[in-house]
Amino acid sequence: NDMTADDQAKFFRSYTLKTDQPWLKIDKSSTFIRGTGEAVINVTYRAELLKQPGLYVGKVIAYPKSGSGRNIPEFELLNTIIVPYQFSSHNGYQLKIQSKTLDNGDYHRYFVLVPPGATGMNIELAATPGKYCGVHGYIPDPEGIKHDVLHPIDTKTKKLSTCSILGEDLMPGVWEIVPYAFYHLKGTSTYDLKVTFSGIEIEQNQLTSIEYENGKNPEGSFEALSHFDLFERTVKGTIT
Which residues are CB-contacts of 165 (< 8 A; sequence separation ≥ 6)? Predict the structure, then answer.
C-alpha cells in the first residue's frame, strides 16, 4: 500500500514453491507475480494419506528466487482438511475412544459427521477406571459455534459427564468434540469418550387421548420407529 501506482505496475518477483506435507501436492515448482496481477497455484490432496480421522494442516510456502532473503518465506498458503469419524451399521453408529491421556492445559479435537436419519447424538466423557482425570469439554456445532459443554469430571468423584443433542438441535454436518484438561491439575488426565447416534421417528407429535381408572395412573401410548439398530430407552411423560 505504501508503493506508488507506477511502482506497483513495475513490480515483478518470481518465487520457488514448496509444501510442508506429503499429502499436499502443487502443480508447479515456481510462479511469479507481475504488477497488481495474481498468481494461480493449483493444489492436489492425496486421499490415500488422509484416511485417518482428524485435522490436517499443510502449507504452500513461497521463497523469493532472488535477493538476500531467498531462504525466508515471503508468503504462505494455508490448506486445512478435516476428515471426520463416520457412523453406520458397521460400527453400530457409535465411536469409542479409550484411555486417552491429556496433559494439563491441553486439549484434543474429534470431528464427527452426523449420519443420515440421525435424530439424536449422545456424548459420554468419563474417567478411565483407576486413572486420574479432571477433564471437561466443549461441543461446537458445524458452524463452529459452541453449542453445549461437557461438565468437568471431578478428580475425586469421577462422575460421568454426558450431553445429548436431539431433534432440530442436531444440525446436519460435522460436529466437533473438544475434551480439555484444566491447567492447574496435579497430574496427567486419562479419559474415555463415547459418541452414539440414534435415529428415532415418533409417529405422532403429541398424545390426543389417555385412559385411566379410578385410583390408578393415567396411561397413553405412541409408536416410535428406529432407523438404526435395535434400541432400548426410558420414556418419561407429563400431563399439561
Answer: 120, 121, 123, 139, 147, 148, 175
Say if residues 31 and 14 touch (Cβ distance below 8 Å).
yes
Per residue of the chain (240 residues), give pLDDT as tens.
Answer: 888 999 989 999 999 999 999 999 999 999 999 998 889 999 999 999 999 999 999 999 999 998 888 889 999 999 999 999 999 989 999 999 999 999 999 999 999 999 999 999 999 999 999 999 999 999 999 999 999 999 999 888 889 999 999 989 999 999 999 999 988 888 899 999 999 999 988 777 677 778 888 998 888 777 888 888 777 777 777 777
DSSP-derived pairing of the beta strands 110-113 and 120-127:
unpaired
Q: Which amino acid is at 196?
A: T
Distance CA 93, CA 121 (A): 10
Give helix then strand counts, H and E, for the chain.
1, 16
For residue 205, the tally of other CB atoms under 10 A from its CB is: 7
What pTM does this model have? 0.81
What is the distance between the alpha carbons of residues 112 and 117, in angstroms, rounded to a whole number?
Answer: 15
How many residues does the structure list for the chain?
240
Q: Quick one: 93 exposed, middle or buried, by C-beta within 10 A (0-12, 13-18, 19+)?
A: buried
